[in-house]
Structures are given as structure tokens and as C-alpha cells.
């Protein structure tokens, strides 16, 4: 187990996201690093190799910290980790100005439909963690939980549904291509979790 790779990824993620906080959290100013650690934990629990855990810790780095972070990731962690991070990065981000929200999400869904096995487990872990955070907020605050998102409730739930569908479609293809791959079971369960949370959010 290449724990050194994960340690390097954690150190870089902690530095890149040092001043960033979660948009939706039960208490104010929760460090963004907590989200990255939870996503990496879900990736680990799904049975993914350490290269995917390292990429999970940095999956938002290019989106949030700019395109120049590509060089940092490659220099410190190698091209394979960078390639996974790139797969998990929304199109239209990483520059001085992000593309419109819907355009970015549509482009991301296209990525998901052709993603690699390891990128898919990272993306599913990310969306499950985000969904868990949102469910906690809705449980405590009701629809006011969506106030921190500029797009509002309907758009947020649309994206969750669309992601779940796209990821399930990709999983079906990978199951046919790689029968017996243990990681597929981990992804399947992540999507089961996501659907459970989505059902809760749609009924509250």
C-alpha cells in the first residue's frame, strides 16, 4: 500500500485548500479539507487503490485553485494521479472565470458517461458525501438549506438525479467490460446510498 503517495496528496490538498470552507455545513466555517478527507475515506472503503485515494484528496484542486495546480500535482504525485484528477474536474473550470453552472454540469455528466473505473468511484464518493451534507442541512433547516446554493433546490436535485443516472449507465457498461472486478460492487453501493439520500431530499 503506497501510503507515501496519499501522505503527499494530503499535504498538498491541505495547502491548496487551507483558506477554503464548506458552503453547506451545520456549523459555520468548517474547513473544506473535511470534505476531501470524507471523499477519500469513501474511496478507500470501496476498495480502490491508493492512487485513487490520492486523487480523491485533490479532486477539486483544479476547479477551485486554478489550472496552475496541474503542474503541482504532476510534479509531486505524478501523471497518473493528475490524469485521474483531470477526469474528475468539471469542464469550464480552472480558469479565471467559470462557465455557467448548467453548462458545466452538462459537460461533467458527459465525462461521467465515459469515465474510467477509478474516476467513477471518486466521482460517486464525492456526490455521496455532498448528498450526506445536504441531507443533514435539510434535516435541521428544511428548504433553507438550499439558500447557500445560487442555483436553488430544483437545480440541485436535478443534478443529483442526472448524475445518479449517468453513473449507473457507466457502471452497467463497466460491469459488462470487467466482470468480477471487486470495485464495481463498491460503486454500486455508493449509487445505492446516493439514491437513498435523493429519495429523502425529494420528499422533504
UniProtKB/TrEMBL annotation:
Highest taxon, organism lineage: Bacteria
Signal sequence annotation: none
Protein name: HD/PDEase domain-containing protein
Pfam families hit by this protein: HD_4
Gene source species: Dictyobacter arantiisoli
Domain HD/PDEase: 28-140
InterPro entries, alphabetized: HD/PDEase_dom (IPR003607), MESH1 (IPR052194)
GO molecular function terms listed in the Swiss-Prot or TrEMBL record: guanosine-3',5'-bis(diphosphate) 3'-diphosphatase activity
